[in-house]
Amino acid sequence: MTNLLLASTENTDKQNSQYTSLNDPEIASVVAHINEEHLDELLGFLSAFTSLSTAESDLVDAQITDIYAEGIAIQTCPKGVENQSTDAQNNSLHNQTFFIAFAAPISQLDDLQAQYILLKQRADKKLGKKTIKLTKQVFDVQSSYRVSKNMLRLELSMPSLNSDTPLNNTAQLSNAKGVTSSTSVPTNEAGYAYLFDLEHNAMTDALMTDSTDGNKASDYKTNGSNKENIRPARPHCYYTLRKAWQADNGIRAWVDVFLHGDTPGGNWAAALQAGETVVTKREFPEKVEHLRNGQAVLIVDETSMPTAARLLELWNNPTPPLVICVTQDADDQSYFDTVKMRSGLDCDTESRKDDRFTVLPIVTNQPNSGAELATLIDRELGDYLTDNPLQIDKVWGALEANTAKALRPLLKDRLELSRTDVVVKVYWRHD
Questions:
Q1: Residue 353 has pLDDT above 90, yes or no
Q2: Contact 24, 108 (CB under 8 A)
Q3: How far apart are CA 70 and CA 99, in angstroms?
Q4: How far apart are CA 307 and CA 286, in angstroms?
Q5: Rounded to the nearest 5°, which phi and psi values hold at 163?
């Protein structure tokens, strides 16, 4: 049972003394990351696990103030209020601290991710939302080819589900190599992300090479040093499911991977051959519900263009969005040329202004990261709005970490929108 603690500002330290502090120097950076990137999840925790009503949670901002062995402390304050308000309703929301308990206490910060995911799964289930899944999926590689200068498309497949089983339901299947997995491939999701196991392919390649050389493949099961030598620099990498559909010979899926220099993910994708398998270990849906109404702007780079492309194909909003597309190479701007926006079958077609979205291209001729890029995007958007007056109501974007962090406050100030209406995600980090 999840416990909660309501504490006034002056009593917080005394009441929180009953919880066990984690003496880890990384806690501050973890707290900062969650507060910057996962506000919607914190608000979900408050709605699902505390006495705060849904109406009240819509009026507040939230941030984690501390992480304990037993759970997390979340503090709320009214949206847009820096100093305590004299308004009675705002006073009731100002600086309350809620304690959200983990399902099981953690002994070190490394255990936090598992307990945080459990909290999110429980909150999403209670709120009727789609949530993260810890599910193994196995795909067969059918082919790979370039869809723009630096974008590689992996075409993947799975066996068909039995005719008695709905496409999106879970079923136990065996792929061409006899591997059994649980599958529920979403065919109608925008921004559905998979955590791909890069190490699976590195190990498989090493074992095949070892077998060709006449050595015992089983040696890799016991020789830890050999395993370390063949592990990729990053064992896992997230990629968006660009599209999935039911074909005559099974389920097909596209995963588009941006190839940019010597990177673990790019090297993994470029080396894949038809007939190999790829394995995913985790999956979760993108947060795009706020885009169902109003004038939206989508801000993407090469890593998030696949998410935006599928979002456009499934667009469920009578107003077409403005798409700001940032690429290092001008030739990658062609990625959206063949993307057709949803015709509006589920929208009010009479109110739809156009069936074509507008792309505002930004070509940088350099890796797309850093605060300077955020300033450039904000300036280009401002210039566009000067020439094309639009009232922007919603924002969705996904960029490099430092760019996203710098861009959020610029957009909020320019567009005068709340944090919940400006969703700018981190899709990668510049090392």
A1: no
A2: yes
A3: 9
A4: 9
A5: -60, -20
